[in-house]
Amino acid sequence: MSAELRRGRPSAGLRRGRAGRAAGALAVAALIAATVPATEAAAADPVPRVDLTVLVVDDGGSSLAAVAAELKGSGVPYRTVRLDQPGRPVIDAAFLADTVDGRPRAKFQGVVLPNEAPGGLAAAELTALAAYEQKYAIPQVDAYTWAHPGVGLDYTDQGGRSGTFDGVGTSVTAAGRSGPFRYLDGPLTFEDNAPGVSESYGYAGRPRTGYTSYLDVPVDGGGRASLLGEYAHDGRRELVVTFAYNQNQRQFRALSRGIVEWLTQGVHLGQSRNYFSVHVDDVFAPDARWDTERDCTPGDIDCAGGAGEETPEIRMTAEDARYAAQWQRSSGFTLDMVYNAGSGEEWKAENGGTDALATQLLADRAQYRWINHTYTHAFLGCVQDVSAVPWRCATNANGSTQYVSRSEISAQIRDNHDWAVRKGIAVDRAELVTGEHSGLKVLPQQPADNPNLAGALADNGVKWTASDNSREPQQRAVGAAKTVPRHPMNVYYNVGTAAEMTDEYNWIYTSRADGGSGICEDNPASTCMAGPLDPATGYGSYIVPQEARIALSHVVANDPRPHYVHQSNLAEERLLYPVLDKVLADYRGLFADNTPLVTPRQSEAGTELARRADWDKALADGKVTAYRIGNTVTVKAPSGVTAPVTAPEGTRKRLLLGTTAFGTAYAGARSAWTSPDLLQSAVTLTLPTT
Fold it and tell me: How many H-runs (helices) and E-runs (strands) does the chain carry?
């Protein structure tokens, strides 16, 4: 039995018939109507309307799900037909197309299938899809198939290769870099995160006539074979993917933008960016230090030990601040300094009345972005009763929860902001990070927000308050304000050296039998390491690449949520920089210069998340209409909802009087959140003619 059959290869392609003369005539008419004067076009058949929606035919596979996740995450509307759903729609000519106002309408601008001939589709449905794609020039993505002549490739035993591709270096071809994958530099190495575990199986075949490779790999005997490419045949175009993947793997995340661009021919609703911003919390304040003997942090309420037994605190020095400014200049990346002025003033009073760190940071204040972190990092939720371990909320005589008052919360916000203004720091009043994200609900002790929080935020003009993405990944309202979830980075707040970091990491991620806490055994969302890391080498050899990989996975997933660390990570052995250096180096080695990292402020990240929520709701409610007729794109959305749109370079937006260049350049295209001009009911774009 062949390797393909043993692996359960996707179904072989069904032969399609050639288009009839009527289909060819219609395609020619469409081209003429887009280029000849209106008087001539009027005598021809109307140019078809193509709705900006994608058809996804779902068989439950991970590769198909990954493409659907990319559509959803970037805001591209799509309709799903589940092959295993009883009573599902029959995909026939009426399902795919109709007529609107006397004009033929293609209901879908692209089709995504599990493979070229899914077993769950009847022969008549496959025939209807082929005829539809021929008639309206609709592209089709085959989410995962095997290499064979039916998709334009030789079998793998004819000079190709099949098997596991973990850790294999592939390349985006010249055709890919000049086409839908023009945002990539070329080399793309498949992930290999678990040696001994097959993560990516694939079939690399040599191209036949009609096939253009976009991603290839070297093969034994010389030459290269393709893992992804376009197969043009019978008046149709298919994007053929011959390796398995899921939505979290880096190789898919890197290629997903190009898959969507190819599928939509570069014109679609939705947009995508690669975001990365890093908040450094507790600036000016010291952080407690992990005790490697007791495996806890003295001073924390859950760590045994009395006064005098605390380990020395960790705080940046003036030299650390100078290094931070120099690193920013050399790396081309700006940090967000999330500051506690009152904690710094307290430290200064306790240490001779001078603070070289504050002096240096203030001298370099224009080089950073700054965010209010409250004056003294006070806990702003319920009043904590620390007589119990773990702590609990203090209660009133009637049993109700005691909360920090509105005036206390407001003073913490106001005093910190006013201090920054006096020092000449540019700080946005609308942005806030509370200490430990307090004031927001924290389980299990405080299942609801402090009822005084929303009022205090309003008192101080706060519109965006940070939350912990590991607890609350979705944005939500806090009175008139909204949360901005932040990703915690696994570079701990309570360590200053690599040995301390590795010791605490071992405590959390090794089993009890290996000397750890067993937390990883008890938590179903966690995984224990095979054994403890070497304190002398574990940080650089294991933790740094692991954390850089996780951060980069957020970056390439169109995720605007900030990451956060602490000032201690810029102190002593400066543990943060190796992680950031690797993230930046890996990113810049993968993406072309036309796709720079976008580093949003907290308010910008919050605005992006809020716009997406409004857009997703408008799509779910069926209140968005968007279509293309020739080189004109029309988008109608509910009042107050801005629409994300992506289009080719050279696209113009129609104004009440004249036109203007549409959107901003990113990844070789133009995109923007956009709304109609004054006195207009829809966004109208004119695409460049080619």
Answer: 19, 33
CA nearest 267: which of 681, 646, 660, 571? Answer: 646
> Do the beta carbons of residue 114 and residue 214 sit within 8 Å?
no
pLDDT of res. 10: 45
Contact (Cβ atoms closer than 8 angstroms) between residue 50 and residue 135: no
Among candidates 395, 398, 324, which has minimal Cα distance to 364? 324
Strand order in the sheet with 211-218: 78-82, 54-58, 110-113, 140-142, 236-241, 224-233, 211-218, 169-172, 187-189
CB atoms within 10 A of CB 659: 14
What percent of the chain is modeled with pLDDT above 90?
88
What is d(CA 137, CA 135) in angstroms, rounded to the nearest whole number? 6
Per-position DSSP letters for 181-231, written without gaps between them: TTTB-SEEEPP--STTS---EEEEB-B-TTEEEEEEEE-TTSSEEEEEEEE
Q: Is omega for the bond preceding 390 within 30 degrees of 0, making it cis?
A: yes
Cβ-contact 176, 259 below 8 angstroms: no
Residues, the chain: 690
For residue range 530-554, what is the model confidence (pLDDT) as tens digits? 999 999 999 999 999 999 999 999 9
Cα angle for residues 394, 396, 398 (degrees, 5° grid): 135
What are the CA-CA distances from residue 515 to residues 33, 507, 512, 530 (Å)? 74, 7, 5, 12
**Phi, psi torsion values for 247, nearest 5 degrees:** -70, -15
In angstroms, rounded to a whole number, what is the distance separating the alpha carbons of residues 588 and 584? 6
Evaluate whether 19 touches 234 at the Cβ level (below 8 Å).
Answer: yes
DSSP 288-316: ---BTTTTB-BTBTTS---TT-PPPPB--
Residue indicated by tokens 């093969």: 219
Give the C-alpha distances (Å, rounded to integers) separating 536 from 139, 141, 264, 541: 54, 49, 51, 10
Tokens at residue 457, please?
């935020």
* pLDDT one-digit tens code per residue, 234-273: 999 999 999 999 999 999 999 999 999 999 999 999 999 9
Identify the three-state secondary structure at position 352: coil
Closest listed residue to residue 115, CA positions, set 255, 232, 9, 259: 9
Tell me: cis bond preceding 444? Omega within 30 of 0 counts: yes
Distance CA 236, CA 97 (A): 17
Q: Is 317 helix (H, G, I), strand (E, B) or coil?
A: coil
Sketch out the chain's domains with CATH numbers.
50-269 (3.40.50.880), 374-488 (no CATH), 631-686 (no CATH)
Q: What does residue 450 show for φ and ψ, rounded to 5 degrees?
A: -55, 120
* CA-closest candidate to residue 214, choices 186, 193, 234, 236: 186
Distance CA 261, CA 413 (A): 45
In the numeric block, the tokens 């376009």 are attached to 230
